[in-house]
Amino acid sequence: MEIQIWDQRERKQKKSNEARRKKELIKDRVKLTCHKCCEFACDNYDIRCVKNAHRIVISKEFKERCDTKPNSKYPKLIDGLDMRMTLVCAKCKTIWGTQAIYNGMELPLMNIGGFVAEYPNGTRKKVKKWKDVQFNVEPVAYTDLDKLLNLEPTASVEE
Ligand SMILES: [Zn+2]
């Protein structure tokens, strides 16, 4: 139930964002690779925006390309997201983001600073801020979470 309300809120936010923004955006595939070892991480089609602030990756393959380690320095709650684990590149251990827990769901949040964006024309750009990326990031939808979590019937869903 709470997820559905969340979903509606994301949609409302999306409309207001689109009205504001008139930036030239790339609709083709943009690859995001590790900024240190160049290992492929995910592409723009796999990224969704949560609460208009955090970017998550909804491909299950992304999780296999990451390792996690305890985020002992900053165990904290931000926007209801429990940031207890750090995500690192499985190959070179560069920090890629945070494994956040939201309502019992594991959401891989991206830290754009860990990646290089590879555009269709071959340009490779290290991006510092999300607002500087040249592709659109859709707000997360309920169906995306379905895909990410593979919704296995577990007790935690009912809590
Ligand atoms: Zn790496």
Word description of this protein:
This protein has three helices and twelve strands. With 159 residues, it is an alpha+beta fold. The protein has one domain: RIG-I-like receptor, C-terminal regulatory domain (Metal Binding Protein, Guanine Nucleotide Exchange Factor, Chain A). The strands form three sheets. Strands 5, 6, 7, 8 and 9 form a five-stranded antiparallel β-sheet that branches. A four-stranded antiparallel β-sheet has the order 2-1-10-11, with no helix packed on it. Strands 4-3-12 form a three-stranded mixed β-sheet. A hairpin with a 5-residue loop joins strand 7 and strand 8. The radius of gyration is 16 Å and the shape is globular. The N and C termini lie close together (11 Å). Zinc ion binds next to loops.
Question: How many domains is the backbone divided into?
Answer: 1
Classify the helix fraction into a percent range: 10-25%
Tell me the overall shape.
globular
Number of strands: 12
What is the N-to-C succession of helices and strands? Answer: HEEEEHEEEEEEEEH
Overall mean confidence score, pLDDT: 84
What compounds sit in this structure? zinc ion
Q: Give the CATH class.
A: Mainly Beta
In terms of per-residue confidence, which ranges show pLDDT below 50 for 5 or more consecutive residues? Answer: 152-159
Task: State the helix count.
Answer: 3
CATH architecture: Beta Complex
Q: Major beta sheet, specifics?
A: 5 strands, antiparallel
